[in-house]
# Entry
Amino acid sequence: MAQTKRFFGGWLSPRRSTWLIRATGLLAGLALVGGAASANPTSGGAAAEHTSEAADLEAAANATIAPVLPCSALAQFPTLETQPQSGVPDFFQIPGAPTEISSAIVVAATAQAPEYCDVQGVIAPQIGFELKLPTTTYAGRYMQMGCGGECGRIGSPSFPACDLQPGGNFAVAATNDGHTGAGVWAVDDQLRVDFAYRAVHVVSVAAKTIITAYYGAAPQHSYFNGCSEGGREGLEEAQRFPEDFDGIAAGAPASIWAPLEIFQAWEARANVDAQGHPILTADKLPALHSAVLAACDGLDGLVDGQINDPRLCHFNPGSMRCPSGTDAPTCLTSQQVEAVRKIYSGPVDAQGQRLYPGGEPYGSELAWNGWMVQRAPGAPTAAESLATDYFKFMGFATNPPASYSILDFPFTEQGFNSTRPLGELYDATNPDLRAFRDRGGKLIIWQGWADQAIPPTGTPDYYEAMQDRMGGLTATQRFARLFMFPTMYHCAGGYGPDLFDVINPLVHWVELGQAPEQIVATQTSTGLPTGTVIRTRPVFAYPEQAAYTGSGSIDDAANFVGVMPSRPPNDDVKWLGQDLFKAPAE
Ligand SMILES: [Ca+2]
# Structure
């Protein structure tokens, strides 16, 4: 049993076998049910001992774990001084995570979700969460979903597919990070801490306790999956609470949080004239994007409508300048040329020192609509809203006056340093992941090279710091891998292949020991998985690059191979916050 064994097209690690032994041991007592067990009832009971080992493995792999409690037994209302039901622990006594469960009801199966016990609760002081516990299809795995923006709402967690649990489902949870709405909540110091890192941690603690009570056993494997703010949460977990999750997928992490708000303020300011009017308008973006592609597509060695590494591009917006006294959607006014330069540059002070490790990446132009370019006249942009909320309510120990606006933020070294004290709370930039690595944790970081919301250059910059701290690229890749998707915008969408799955690679890595070498991204006619496939393209573990073999369609991933650059890329960006990528006390 301790040997690695092939089954279901995959490989079992000794660790996985341990799970199987434990799961098989539960067969009689906990009524394991599932696809294989249903098809062959004898494999679902004590007779499993008499089947061949392969059949045993197959049955256990497909097995699901049934609850040992009715769903409604999980509800607890400490405020009403009701005692927990018999056999249910008092969730209010969870160390560091006093929990009230206000609702626990069974929700019927739909086309998108299995039947599940819907648990809604609060962890003190006011961390809201929802935990969905499959009633008949739970397969022993827990997955916690990340949030977006500054959170403030519980995004109803969905049930992701995973080929190691055919017919089975994760228990899934999500949290509002301890507050509702935007901005004003952050006047409370405890709520700042809960948002920064505590909420995700205590929800994982409470969820595992509830799972243990409901199914009679703790989850065998725990995962975290998030993008943007959720990517930051994933890195916070790996850095601060390495025991919480076995596998973490951190997409487009907003991990250099405080400086990122300076970036947002800069982008918003870059596109407003002295009278407060927008400079660059949405009608200019298609021509700008086309001009950038024409200038930079081929720099990666293949003219395919993709800029594989925008750092190679040096597009001059002045090349699009309209003839004097004219204006058209196909050209930029002189004022627009200057605004576009600032947008690509990202925040700098008067001496040219960077206040963030990057600006808008070349290729991202079409996604600027709504970000720092107004979707409609007078509509607030995302960059302005995020930066305003942050500097008014979250960014300083003492909030500025109510009249404060991003026009008041000085793009100076002093201005940068003024964000440091609270940045220590929110930033997830510690490269020392030894504790996470040593307990067997696996980390997939990913981002789009055309991310309009978080400049993608900051992510390889952090990954390089991680390599420096963790013993180099090879040693780091044993537990943490980075995937950069060339044409992808922020967390979703893009001007090329932007659909991919990160769950299966993560689960396979954690449970089967299969480190992901590549992730194939797909582009479809509609941008949805149901559309007609236009292109597939592999993305290799950074810094390996996809290279065309020279024959066959460039729209078929099969015609690309991974090539390591002859020299390792230098991902260090010179900027004022380089010291943030050091472990505390280093
Ligand atoms: Ca190209």
